[in-house]
Amino acid sequence: MRRRMRGTAVAAIALTSLMVVSACAKDSGGGTAPTGSAGGCEFAEPPTAPVASSTSAAAGGDKVDGSALKIGLAYDIGGRGDASFNDLAAAGFDQAIKDMGVKKENTRELSAAPNEDESAKQTRLRQLASEGFNPIVGVGFAYTESLRVVAPEFPNVKFGLVDSAVEGVANVTPLVFAEQEGAFLAGVVAAYQSKKCHVGFVGGVDIPLIQKFEAGYNQGARTAAPKVTIDKKYITPAGDFTGFQDPPKGQEAAKGLIDKGADVVYPAAGASGIGVFAAVKEAGVLAIGCDADQYNQPALAANRDVIVASSLKRVDVAVYDFFHAAASNDIASLPKVFDLKSNGMGYATSGGKIDAKLQGILEGYKAQIIEGKIKVADQV
């Protein structure tokens, strides 16, 4: 039932194009003979693509009457319109409202400010809960400590928490992801698209969550091309979350990597990625999107032609599924981790720049992850 529901959400939310996922493999080192080179890289022997693969699901899911519900969403910094993480949460929120028949006046979205005081987050959550909103989703790990305090004050309210967990608080459901899996295939794409065998990573904030993206990206690139050069730049250190909402600094970080020789850049930087794509466009190189299918994001229309693929972190699916499960008292059926197998991670090839050969290579890695033949690391 849960897998069917999730497939429905994916189709309805319409993050289109072929979506597959991968995870991270251990570095190949010199043990795998390259099969050839293109774009400056010598490539390791890729896995064989499966004969057939399907990511579609049944068209119909279980309907839930949510007309009497009041549902709330508390955004991370950047909010609706960031062309990334928060916009995905908004998409899941919107689709849940539509599918469950929630009345517009019974919905509420509240946004966060960069580096705001912890009390502001608690106030935001209390406001939603005290006004009768239930269920409520906190978008981002920044709500972890606030929910540790606020959730026990409202034991009958169901809270979902994206990217984190609150141990010992029964009414908070963690909605966590295997980010390194999608990033791994982003690394494979980067290696194959690079003309110099030199790629780059831009992280928004130097924290463990974003380091998971870096770890997967690095290992994916090195699994595909063991001799690839990888440079990285974090916009801000841990504790300074403006790195997720500073396009000019994102542009500066990407320019620095490009000046060093990187000709494919992958940002895991929230709204700061807008600046990364601008730098990539100006330099005439390539980029890989993150979280959403960024080729199709309106805010990136001016620079989308440089985006050859996007790793997908299906926050939309997790948010949708949480609201649906909470409304039907079925939270226990949610996956413990939104990963490849649960369609919680993926990638999009919008733009038509990924050819059939590379698509087959990506499918091969996907199959090996599903079978457990490739293990993913979540630390650099």
From TrEMBL:
The protein, known as: BMP family ABC transporter substrate-binding protein
Cleaved signal peptide residues: 1-25
Organism this protein belongs to: Lentzea pudingi
SUPFAM superfamilies referenced in this protein's UniProt entry, alphabetically: Periplasmic binding protein-like I
Span list, region Disordered: 29-61, 105-124
Subcellular location as annotated: Cell membrane
Main location as per UniProt: membrane
Residue stretches of biased makeup (Gly residues): 29-39
